[in-house]
């Protein structure tokens, strides 16, 4: 009766048995009492202990007073405290059963210590040495997770593979659907945790700068998983896992994170960032070559995997930079770094260059991205140069009315304009020849547009009224303006020599515009001369001309005096001017004879006229030879007219006149 009075469950008899059953179950759970679990059945082929389920640990968390305590904390508690706890929960009625439970728990503690000693004797491959009679006990999900967190990755992977095999093995006792789904979910979550630790080790290996022992565990796990992929039949969810492919992806992600950490000072600019990226790639691949690649099996091709990962990561960095709005210098820098600096300083590095070149990694940027950068650079340069040359032309035009020398004008306009273009013509081919050709074609178009504007301004200036352009300064200004043409012509020729298919038309337009400017300036230069020569040309081919050479001598003297003023001319426009002067002088000389101003009434008179023509033709030839005329063929027109005068046969005369008109159309 006393026992019944002290029984806390006397009012509910059935509750007493349920409460006792629940407490006994808790006492039998690990880590409180491994000894209370049933031993493996003799019929079990593997002789392994049954795996503890993770939901059992959830019961401990729901036990009153233990909600915030971790499983590890509960494991460290001593058995006497647990016995006292049970006695307090059961009351006086459960003293005897509490004492028995404490004894059983103590026995379980001894057995657990014995099993832990056996686990410590397990070799590095996770297998028990021969001669031991008992096999390793399967771990629960939480214990496997604890192995992962302690980075005992090989042992954790073995347990996960075994747990996965239990999920999909053909058992004579079917597992309930809910339990099977729970186990499959546990396997998936454990694999996620395992992979996170594996790839964390991969990411830590390169920054260490020396051989990284944890990497061996990663390699062993990869090998175990590949073996498991071969053992499992097709159709099993999650298999094959292909961890080697995932390892390659993890290497690429780690490379991307390493390059993303390269962040020079904001004021350093793009050049410092690119230099930092190159140094990081070379340094990290040097660590891989010396310390990490030898740790992998040869069939992994570890250096190639790391090299391709860094190559792709660097390509992503460049692609991101290419999407940013860049100034012209940065566009040149990025294009040159991609085409020249990277192959020279990274692919050609003495430590890793030969191995990288053997991999044939290819360009960092795809061709369309590189062409886009080149097009952006060309467009930006064109817009910038168009504005600059227009400003130079306007500044130069403002000084044309002032007293400026030919050298000052040439240096102020032609030199500066060609200098603006030359900077890009020399820079672009250093990137690639194709880029240089496209840049030259664009700049040739800019130059043609500029020359059209230059021609219009020269025409407007030279055709201005006398009060705007003083007569005494017209010659000097015309010489200064025409001297700008040779540098422009030479530069247009240089741009056309890059060989762009469409450059010939632009070159022709440039030369045509410069020819117009040259003719316009030459006309201004020779206009005053021919005004002075006109009275003397009118005295030729008259009877007084036969007896006096004053008119012809005056012509020679005026031409000689005029050419002395042409010394500042550049050789090219000088040759054009002298050739034009040569043509016009001979044309004015023979025109009176062809117009019939002098009529020869006898053969004696024709002979006298022919003699005079021969003498003056010789003087004209000598004059223009001294002036370095580029048209010596013009000297033959007067001797041929002289021959016509001595011909008496009408048919022969008509034939010679026809040949003369054909060779010299201007004599008509």
- Count the beta strands: 0
Number of helices: 27
The protein's oligomeric status is single chain
Helix-strand makeup class: mainly alpha
N-end to C-end Cα span: 158 Å
**Globular, elongated, flat, extended or rod-shaped: what is the shape?**
rod-shaped
Average pLDDT rating: 77
- What percent of residues adopt helix (DSSP H or I)? over 70%
- The Rg value, from CA coordinates, equals 52 Å
User: How many domains, as an integer?
Assistant: 5
- Give the biggest beta sheet: none
Catalogue the unreliable spans: 1-11, 15-47, 56-135, 170-177
Beta strand %: under 5%
Instruction: Report the order of strands and helices.
Output: HHHHHHHHHHHHHHHHHHHHHHHHHHH
Notable characteristics:
rod-shaped; 668 residues; single chain; mainly alpha
Description:
Residues 1-55, 99-135 are annotated as: Disordered. One of its GO terms (biological process) is exocyst localization. This is EX3L2 protein. InterPro entries: EXOC3/Sec6, EXOC3/Sec6_C. It comes from Galbula dea. This protein has 668 residues and is mainly alpha-helical. The chain folds into five domains: 2-120, no CATH class; 141-241; 256-365, no CATH class; 370-512; 539-667. The protein contains 27 helices and no strands. The chain has helices spanning 2-6, 13-28, 54-62, 71-76, 79-90, 95-120, 141-149, 153-168, 177-208, 214-231, 243-260, 270-292, 302-322, 328-345, 353-359, 367-397, 406-427, 433-462, 471-482, 485-496, 503-538, 543-547, 550-564, 571-594, 603-626, 637-646, 650-663. The radius of gyration is 52 Å and the shape is rod-shaped. Mean pLDDT is 77; it is low at 1-11, 15-47, 56-135 and 170-177.
């Amino acid at each position: 009766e006393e026992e019944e009075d002290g029984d806390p469950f006397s009012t509910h008899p059935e509750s007493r048995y349920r409460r006792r059953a629940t407490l006994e179950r808790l006492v039998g759970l690990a880590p409180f009492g491994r000894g209370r679990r049933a031993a493996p059945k003799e019929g079990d082929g593997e002789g392994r202990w049954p795996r503890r389920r993770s939901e059992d640990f959830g019961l401990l968390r729901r036990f009153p007073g233990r909600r915030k305590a971790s499983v590890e904390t509960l494991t460290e508690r001593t058995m006497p405290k647990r016995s006292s706890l049970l006695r307090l929960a059961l009351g006086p009625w459960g003293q005897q059963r509490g004492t028995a439970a404490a004894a059983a728990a103590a026995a379980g503690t001894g057995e657990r210590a014995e099993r832990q000693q056996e686990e410590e004797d397990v070799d590095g491959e996770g297998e028990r040495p021969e001669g031991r009679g008992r096999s390793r006990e399967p771990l629960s999900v939480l214990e496997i997770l604890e192995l992962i967190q302690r980075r005992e990755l090989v042992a954790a992977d073995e347990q996960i593979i075994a747990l996965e095999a239990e999920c999909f093995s053909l058992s004579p006792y079917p597992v309930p659907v809910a339990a099977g789904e729970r186990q499959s979910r546990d396997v998936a979550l454990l694999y996620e945790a395992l992979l996170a630790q594996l790839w964390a080790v991969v990411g830590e290996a390169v920054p260490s700068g020396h051989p990284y022992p944890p990497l061996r565990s990663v390699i062993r796990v990869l090998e175990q998983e590949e073996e498991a992929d071969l053992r499992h039949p097709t159709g099993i969810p999650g298999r094959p896992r292909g961890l080697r492919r995932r390892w390659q992806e993890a290497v690429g992600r780690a490379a991307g994170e390493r390059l993303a950490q390269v962040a020079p000072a904001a004021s350093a600019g793009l050049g410092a960032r690119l230099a930092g990226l190159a140094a990081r790639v070379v340094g990290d691949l040097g660590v891989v070559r010396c310390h990490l690649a030898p740790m992998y099996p040869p069939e992994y091709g570890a250096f190639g995997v790391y090299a391709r990962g860094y190559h792709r990561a660097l390509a992503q960095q460049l692609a991101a930079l290419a999407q940013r709005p860049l100034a012209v210098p940065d566009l040149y820098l990025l294009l040159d770094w991609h085409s020249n600096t990277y192959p020279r300083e990274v692919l050609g590095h003495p430590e890793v260059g030969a191995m990288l070149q053997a991999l044939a990694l290819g360009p960092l940027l795809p061709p369309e991205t590189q062409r886009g950068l080149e097009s952006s650079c060309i467009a930006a340069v064109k817009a910038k140069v168009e504005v600059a040359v227009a400003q130079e032309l306007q500044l130069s035009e403002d000084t044309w009315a002032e007293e400026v020398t030919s050298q000052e004008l040439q240096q102020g306009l032609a030199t500066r304009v060609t200098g603006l273009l030359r900077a890009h013509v020399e820079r672009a081919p250093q990137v690639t020849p194709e880029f240089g050709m496209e840049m030259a074609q664009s700049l040739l178009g800019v130059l043609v547009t500029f020359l059209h504007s230059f021609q219009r301004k020269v025409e407007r200036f030279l055709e201005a009224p006398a009060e705007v352009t003083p007569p005494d300064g017209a010659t000097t200004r015309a010489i200064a303006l025409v001297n700008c043409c040779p540098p422009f012509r030479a530069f247009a020729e240089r741009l056309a020599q890059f060989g762009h298919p469409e450059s010939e038309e632009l070159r022709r337009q440039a030369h045509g515009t410069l020819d117009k400017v040259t003719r316009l300036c030459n006309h201004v230069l020779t206009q005053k001369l021919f005004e002075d020569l006109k009275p003397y040309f009118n005295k030729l081919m008259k009877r007084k001309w036969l007896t006096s050479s004053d008119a012809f001598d005056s012509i020679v003297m005026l031409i000689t005096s005029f050419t002395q003023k042409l010394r500042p001319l550049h050789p090219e426009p000088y040759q054009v001017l002298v050739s034009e002067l040569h043509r016009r002088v001979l044309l004015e000389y023979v025109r009176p004879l062809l117009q019939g101003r002098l009529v020869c009434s006898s053969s004696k008179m024709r002979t006298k006229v022919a003699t005079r023509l021969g003498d003056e033709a010789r003087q004209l030839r000598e004059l223009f030879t001294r002036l370095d005329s580029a048209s010596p063929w013009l000297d033959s027109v007067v001797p041929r007219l002289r021959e016509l005068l001595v011909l008496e046969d009408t048919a022969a005369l008509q034939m010679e006149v026809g040949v003369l008109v054909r060779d010299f159309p201007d004599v008509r």
